[in-house]
Amino acid sequence: MHSRDNTTLRESTIGLADRAVGVARALRGPCTSEFRRRHDSPEQWSRWARRARIARTVAAALQLPADSVTVTDDPDRQYRTRNGNVPGDLITVTDPETAQRWRLLTDFTSPGESWFVLDRCPGCDAEVPVVRIACLADLGDYLDPDTDVVLADEARDSSLHDRLCTRREPCDAL
Ligand SMILES: [Zn+2]
Description:
It is a single chain. The protein contains 4 helices and 5 strands, in the order αααβββββα. A 5-stranded antiparallel beta sheet has the order 1-2-3-4-5. Helix content is 33%, strand content 25%. With 174 residues, it is of the alpha+beta class. Zinc ion binds next to loops.
């Protein structure tokens, strides 16, 4: 009985170590240099740790494993700070069952608690923040064709759409 318990414990410990090494090796790839640079300065470490927290929080909100979520520099959006413009956080959620991907942005009205889902505008194909989500049900409400979801005001931001797109303001329906 005791030896069986010990065996179980040892196997689960090895499992964690193997998974940790696997994740670290994947992050050391050429496209993820942020992982390599995370100890270069206090600012780098702070950003790395903050993004790890975002990934954990989003994964928990969507009831997914933590490694289903990655946070990277947003190539399309920058934010002004005291030290100049910095890239935003682009949150990518990969469904482990289907490999379908979703892209999210921080909702600065409640950071750490809700996020914007990015999706294509049916009018001009621009990628725009369409709805706020805080949990799995919010995402489901957006995806469910049988509900009348309330789109975020940000979805109609004129600057995000093609100039001739009818889905931008002042139209009141996306
Ligand atoms: Zn549009």
